[in-house]
Amino acid sequence: MPLVVQKFGGTSVADAERIRAVADHVARSRRDGNDVVVVVSAMGKTTDELVRLAADVSATQPAREVDMLLSAGERISMALLCMALADLGVPATSFTGSQAGIVTDEVHTRAKILEVKGDRLRLTLAAGGVPVVAGFQGVSTANDVTTLGRGGSDTTAVALAAALGADACEIYTDVPGVFTSDPRIVPEARRLPRVSFEEMLEIAATGGRVLALRSVEFARNHHVPLHVRSSFTWEPGTWVGEEDPEMEQAMVTAVTHDLSEAKVTVTRVPDRPGLAARLFRALADRNVNVDMIVQNTSTDGTTDISFTVPGADLAVSAEVAAGLVPEIGATGVTTDDQVARVSLIGAGMKTHPGVTARTFETLAAEGINIEMISTSSIRISCMVRADRAEAAVQALHAAFELA
Ligand code: ASP
Ligand code: MG
Question: What is the pLDDT of residue 333?
Answer without folding.
Answer: 96
